[in-house]
Amino acid sequence: MAKTPRNDMPRQKPEVRKHNFDEVALGYDEALALAEASRCLDCKKPACVEGCPVEIDIPGFIREIKRKNYAEAINILRQKNSLPAVCGRVCPQEEQCEKLCVLGRKSEPVAIGRLERFAADWERANRPVSDRPQHTCDGPKVAIVGSGPAGLTVAGDLARIGYRVTLFEALHKPGGVLVYGIPEFRLPKAIVQEEVDYIGKSGVEVKTNTIIGRTITVDELLADGYEALFVGSGAGSPKFKGIPGEQLNGVCSANEFLTRANLMKAYHFPRYHTPIRAGKKVAVIGAGNVAMDSARTALRLGAEEVSIVYRRSRDEMPARAEEIENAEEEGVQLKLLTDPIRLIGENGWVKAMECLQMELGEPDASGRRSPVPVEGSEFLIEVDTVIVAIATSANPLIRQTTPGLESNKRGYIIADEETGRTTKEGVWAGGDIVTGAATVILAMGAGRKAARDIDRYLREKQSR
Asked: Is the pLDDT of residue 160 over 80?
């Protein structure tokens, strides 16, 4: 087995990109894509497919790239993936398909995600949305609540079969976390819009500014002729640590900070008059991808010092290694084994963060070693902005206004893992509203399973 090195993806230089919101990763050109595709062994029993939540024929689309048949490569991708340009950018392939790549046992795995992005970008450049196939949708009506990755996947899959799908979105733009949560420099919003337009061209009707549970309820939709309904409303309610001082000015959740920057385009001030506070000395509490996104956004908004404050060590950081690397290259500091215990204010504004030094003890339920405070190790960090990026929870509105729809003690909707069926007849759910905050591709995988089961349910219903 030849140990041909993996082809790196070109990126903007750190000293340049930290001052702009342009996409950091520049993508493969044709030569790099062909070189990387040639590394694929085209296994007869591809383990990589087992690691893909949406079951893409990975060797199949890579084989077509090798042949320079890019149109067929994207056709193969779209058979299973409604959002290839998105997944090629933000899916954690290193923990899924690439983790199982045979090459990775003795060398580096094939860069499956980068090749997926190449095929999707080829489609964007060579096959406009207006030229792509349109489906005839004359089947039963299906309602989708939430236009994030799970909802878009269900909508795309069911429209392809022929169902009349309506997608309801609470915000003024469809895309869910793809538009309000992930920054422009990781996922350009024009790409999200094109993917939404593609699904819309498939026959899906999109209704924005519609809050299910307030504008209209689940039961009212079911009574209005929708024969099935999928809830993919995500987990967008922020959580705080509960430490003193979190009510001070200059303290906000990552949800609010990123929504203002991404969806409301605060980074385009003064073209967009969206208020946002970046500050000069910014501390981000947390170490997941959302924390990295917040820290890197703050840097681009003009912060002079940005720190990730995390109570465990680097090995336990949940963010993708690529995102941690990008953040450090751009100048974000990692304050590890550090736990904030109090925020200190002056004239109503945060000015310092009191922290404890931590050390690692035994592993907890998540498998990560538990942080243990070091007695007498209190110290202060000077800050003028604090962004809390530790966790999110489910908005309770849908479950509170939908009798018969059960949730667990954490407020997430109870749904079958393989089918997405909930405790309410005719209602399915999937993505973060079921699992809590997870990845885009896992939400899409849940959407695919739910779409398959909705189709099965409606076919059985029609045959009775």
From this structure: yes
DSSP assignment string, 31-71: HHHHHHHTT----SS-HHHHT-TT---HHHHHHHHHTT-HH
C-alpha angle 293-298-299 in degrees, rounded to nearest 5: 100
Instruction: Calculate helix-pair angle for 149-161, 189-201, nearest 10 degrees.
Output: 30
238 forms bridges with which residues in the sheet? Answer: 392
Contact 36, 10 (CB under 8 A): no
CA–CA separation, 371 vs 358, rounded Å? 6
Q: Which residues of 149-173 are buried (b: 16+ CB within 10 A; e: fewer)?
A: bbbbbbbbbbbbbebbbbbbbbbeb
pLDDT over 70, % of the chain: 98
| Nearest one of 44, 35, 55, 54 to 102, comparing CA atoms | 44
Which tens digits make up the pLDDT trace of 318-375?
A: 999 999 999 999 999 999 999 999 999 999 999 999 999 999 988 877 777 889 999 9
Give the total residue count for the chain.
Answer: 464
Residue 153 tokens read as 């996947």
Q: Enumerate residues 6+ apart whose C-beta is below 8 A from 45.
A: none
Joined tokens for residue 16: 């340049």
Rounded distance between C-alpha atoms, residue 246 and residue 170, angstroms: 28
H helices of 41-146, where?
Answer: 47-50, 58-66, 70-80, 84-90, 112-126
Ordered DSSP codes for 268-332:
GTTTS-------SEEEEE--SHHHHHHHHHHHHTT-SEEEEE-SS-GGG--S-HHHHHHHHHHT-
Bridge partner list, 1: none
How far apart CA 109 and CA 247 sit, in angstroms, is 47
What predicted TM-score, i.e. pTM, was given to this entire model? 0.93
Q: Are strands 226-231 and 427-429 parallel, antiparallel or unpaired?
A: parallel
R_g (Cα) of the chain, nearest Å: 23
Q: State residue 133's pLDDT score.
A: 64
pLDDT level of residue 175 (50, 70, 90 thresholds): very high
Task: Judge whether 360 and 391 are in contact, CB under 8 Å.
Answer: no
